Amino acid sequence: MAIFRSRFAGHLAILTLLVAIAAAQASSKPSEAELAAITARGVLLAEYDTAAWQATDAVQATHPVEGRSGRYIARKIDAEWVVDFGRLNQAQDKFLVAYEAVQVSAKFQVKSFSPAREDTGWNLAAAKGIETVMRDFGGTSRPYNIAVLPAESESMYVYLYPAQVKAGIYPLGADVRYRVSQDGTKITEKRQMHKTIIESVTARTDMTVKGGYHSHVLSEVPEDTDVFLVLTRKPQVPEVVVAGPYMFTIDLNGKITVEDRPR
Predict the structure, then answer these.
(1) For the CA atoms of 188, 191, 197, 199, what is the dihedral angle to 10 degrees?
(2) What local confidence, expressed as pLDDT, does residue 66 receive?
(3) Is the peptide bond before 222 cis (omega within 30 degrees of 0)?
(4) Which residues neighbour 79 within 8 Å (Cβ) at sequence distance 6 or greater?
(5) Distance CA 51, CA 173 (A)
(6) Please, what is the end-to-end C-alpha distance for the chain in angstroms?
(7) Cα–Cα distance, 260 to 222 (Å, whole number)
(8) pTM here?
(9) Order of strands across the sheet that contains 256-260
């Protein structure tokens, strides 16, 4: 009888453990607030990227003086974007703005500053943040884009993600999001969002594509750059992301929905 009770207790303990694990897994499903935050960051990242290349085209059209600017930094003011082009001074205590592109409706208007406008605010912190993360990230065999977005707790996010180098090919992967201190000098968090690069190819004209699909190995939630991909890829189609026990769908507006992964 004692042996029976011992075995029963062992089985009960295992059953209790399994129930606890299942409950923990169920409770770990990302909340709507968490998914909405990923969407918000991804949308802003896509806007930043679009503003950067449109502003760059606008500045190039003015035939800028070579060597006056080596870095672009964008920021959203109300509903419009401002992109400043310049460089850190030798002492690295000022960002020298040579050109500024201001979004007016769907176009960017360019101002030139000679001598350069000295900035000790957001541009300085963002430029120093970029230099800080690039030292950590190291060299790459392909071009990368950089974006700096404000973050909570008086910090900033600095994104490094592979640039599109061929029309119709949209790279996703080998990307990192850093959280950097307010002055741009200290990395407080590093998040590897994807491991290897996936090349997303434009859909063929002789077929209809209803959506894309990829899986995650580093996390159990979609990443900001997953939303970015959906918003910037042409033609636009939803993306299904399989991560851990869940399957996420990112719609054309960047909204994320989640359901249990089919077994």
Answers:
(1) -100
(2) 87
(3) no
(4) none
(5) 22
(6) 40
(7) 14
(8) 0.86
(9) 212-216, 239-243, 246-250, 256-260
Cα–Cα–Cα angle for 53, 57, 58, rounded to 5 degrees: 115
Question: What are the beta bridge partners of residue 87?
Answer: 96
**Alpha carbon distance 88, 94 (integer Å):** 6
Does residue 235 have a cis peptide bond before it, meaning omega lies within 30 degrees of 0?
Answer: yes
Contact present, 222 and 37 (Cβ < 8 Å):
no
- The confidence score (pLDDT) of residue 14 equals 44
Query: Strands (DSSP E) along the chain, which ranges?
Result: 71-77, 80-88, 95-104, 107-119, 144-151, 155-162, 169-172, 176-180, 187-192, 198-201, 212-216, 239-243, 246-250, 256-260
Of the CA atoms within 13 Å of residue 33, those in its CB half-sphere come to 0
Domain ranges of the chain: 50-122
pLDDT of residue 101: 98
Q: Residue 103 has which token pair?
A: 């979004």
Could you tell me the mean pLDDT of each successive run of 10 residues in the chain, 263 residues long? 39 42 58 97 98 97 90 95 97 97 95 96 98 95 96 95 92 97 97 92 65 92 97 94 96 97 82
Structure tokens that stand for 129 in this block: 């943040």
Helix (H, G, I), strand (E, B) or coil at 3: helix
